[in-house]
Amino acid sequence: xxxxxxxxxxxxxxxxxxxxxxxxxxxxxxxxxxxxxxxxxxxxxxxxxxxxxxxxxxxxxxxxxxxxxxxxxxxxxxxxxxxxxxxxxxxxxxx
Length: 95
What we know:
Blueprint: H1 3-33, H2 39-55, H3 58-74, H4 82-89
Helix pairs in contact: 1-2, 1-3
């Protein structure tokens, strides 16, 4: 699996998680306002919110990947890949 595919899957999980979280909140708000749905509405809203929270956890992984890429592009001394480390040993930034 390539890095681009992994990032795409993380984005899909993030969007789905935030959507489920918002929908679960809406279901809980509607259920709390009216008693027509009953206890099943509370269960449905809580389940949607819980699954949304679990699916939104990859946002931390995605943001970490973005931060690492940004740091690698801007800081000449920071290298993540083996090729970058080999290049860094031959440059003036050697410790």
